[in-house]
Design goal:
The structure holds 2 protein chains of 2 kinds. By secondary structure, chain A is α/β, with parallel strands linked by helices. Chain A has 2 domains: 163 residues, 3-Layer(aba) Sandwich (Rossmann fold), CATH 3.40.50.970; 141 residues, Rossmann fold (3-Layer(aba) Sandwich). Chain A has 13 helices and 14 strands. In chain A, strands 3-2-4-5-7-6-12 form a 7-stranded mixed beta sheet, sandwiched between helices. In chain A, helix 9 links the parallel strand 10 and strand 11. In chain A, helix 1 runs parallel beside helix 7 and helix 9 packs across helix 13. Chain A is globular and about 55 Å long. In chain A, 54% of the residues are buried. In chain B, helix 3 packs antiparallel against helix 4. Chain B has a 5-stranded parallel beta sheet with strand order 1-2-3-5-4, with helices on both faces. Chain B is globular, with a radius of gyration of 18 Å. Chain B is 41% helix and 10% strand. In chain B, 53% of the residues are buried. By secondary structure, chain B is an alpha/beta fold. Chains A and B meet through helix 3 and helix 5 of A and helix 1, helix 6 and helix 7 of B.
Chain lengths: 344, 299
Amino acid sequence: MTLASMARKYEARKRPEGERQATSAMIASLAAEGYDTVNAPFGNALIEAARKDERIVGLTADLGKYTDLHVFANAMPDRFYQMGMAEQVLMSAAAGLAREGFLPFATTYAVFASRRAYDFIAMAIAEENLPVKIVCALPGLTTGYGPSHQATEDLAIFRGLPNMTIIDPCDADDILGMVPAMCAHEGPVYARLLRGKVPSVLKKHKPDYRFQLGKAQLIRDGRDVLVISTGLMTMRALDAAVKLAEDKVDVAVLHCPTVKPLDLDTIAAEAARSGRLVVTAENHTVMGGLGEAVAGGLLSRGIAPKFRMIGLPDQFLEAGALPTLHDMYGLSVGKVAAQIRSWL
Amino acid sequence: MDLASRRFAPSSEARSDEPRSDMARSNVSLALRAWNIRRKALLMGQVQGQGYIGQALGIADVLAASYFHALEYRPEDPEWEGRDRFLLSIGHYAIALYAVLMEAGILPEDELETYGMDDSRMPMSGMASYTPGMEITGGSLGHGLGIAVGMAMGLKRKRNRAFVYNLMSDGELGEGSTWEAAMSGAHHKLDNLICLVDFNNQQADGKSTEMLCSEPLTEKWEAFGWHAQRVNGNDLAAIVTAFDTAREVKDAKPRVIIFDTTMCKGVPFLESREITHFVRVEADEWDKALAVLEEGKPA
């Protein structure tokens, strides 16, 4: 029996437009046109940090290769724990190691950390403010495997958790910068991860860019629109801004890699500059992520610009090829540009 | 690096020539220690008019053997690097742990009357940030063993010879995380990890074996790669022997002791009451319970 509420259709999902593409493997790198890439920035940055800090250990739940932790494991096998496919003990054991003075980096997919291991992250790690660094691949919509692997609500889940610092890096530059910053930060951190060949985007647009924990940074200025973005959506926003400039639409991009605590001072100062449309952009459901955090922050400060949100809909998303899905759900460069244009 | 140097420096030397706790050499009998724990737990229950007194009375003998036979610690320095770590996974057993922490001199006895009150360091469910000697925040059940696995790994990394003890309840055997941790402890050959299971066959909705049966339990732990023992958890001689075996056995595997305990042990009129997870004690019964306990005071 199928319940009416389940609405099973047993039919292929129709792509709105464009050519059919194949779903890529989960281990595939995220594509970004026109940028150089850095190989395994997280794994390599962790090796460098661990050479300086003997407290650092790495743990994974059978996803070393899929989170670039294998690079660290190969370089420093005695600092690495393979915990097997067991996310609850992954987080609990990381908490135990932190209690004994270590600085554990625990990796898995974002869906498994946020959904399966949440109670353990909340009580064993966050409640005690332990310095466990949780680093998770496949954030938001970065795989075509469907809802089992698409962590579309992880930011909302962890934003509600006291003591938790949340980072959604845009690119390799952010990832290389965030690892030492995570080590220097005393409490727990949840970081989203791009793995494999990761594009270097921010420094191309702003050569002196340097990741700073807790800081939003203006990557480019513009008179017509202010995009406040996090994660890979900053990449999309920057490319969309270039595209829109061809149509004489001047777009500023304020990048907020730290989602919590959010740099509301910088955000408010930029949003208060009159006349600009303010658009938030995130690789996450519009429920409880960056957009709502910015909206709440601005309203609390009496700032109410024309405001729109770019993000994933409040739905379980389709399976398919990632470029197709990004187009379907409005995360592609073309769709970001089109949405902004439609709101002007 | 401050944290690193503070915590790592003493580790390798922490226990090599340290004397065992004075408590272990005390001439106060374990039976009297257990009796004192029961009495303190009843006094705390009386303050609140309620409490997990059934569990506290049942586990008192195991706690007496833990703190006055097995564990090494320094009462004046609960964070001493060389201490054996004792994790209370079952947060609601806090009343029992507070009693033994007072008996051991880690908590001052004059705080007894604050149990469960506002402004107390002794909340109803055990929390690490409130109470000296409370290693972890338990209560979300099935957490302790996983944390113990990580601590045991950490101690080995530091070449610290301390043991990690995790006290859990039979109800927690229903949590999948317990078995993730059990597999992990064996996989990583954590011979410095000792799990204590209080099998009182009682959980919130009824008998544990009728909620989600974990039997055959000894065989189950053995199949998970543990050195397993099962003893009467209200027989001090058996408890002491089990602790000695768990500490001294040479197998490169973690150890578990399953203690079959009787809820409300030591207060017969409560023992015979229809036992529930949260034993109801009427206002006028606390004095009666204390009086009955007094009659059974060991020499």
